[in-house]
Amino acid sequence: MPNIVEEFNDYRERMNDKILSDNNKVIKRIFNLDTNAYSEGALDIKTKELLGLVASAVLRCDDCVKYHLETSYREGLTKEEVVEALSIATLVGGTIVIPHLRRAYEFWDALEQQG
Prior knowledge:
Layout: H1 4-21, H2 25-37, H3 45-58, H4 62-74, H5 79-93, H6 98-114
Helix pairs in contact: 3-4, 3-5, 4-6, 5-6
């Protein structure tokens, strides 16, 4: 059975390396801004990850949802906390978010199985 977490991370790392190797100043700054936006500040990292998760689900970005799910898992958020955030995303985004919700559940289960 394929490991969807490893496949996602391998692809993401490979393509990020390729993108960043072009040495485009704008793209590098956007990547850096993204990294810095999710660092500790007035809001803690867990809160920022949940905000990113909700925004990503509402915007229907599966890669973004996976990224924020994995970071949330690493930061020690519980499934209950993540599901509550996803419920807000589904409420705000509407039923069009449900397919992304399904994939989010699948990815979270894979994270838990991976340990």
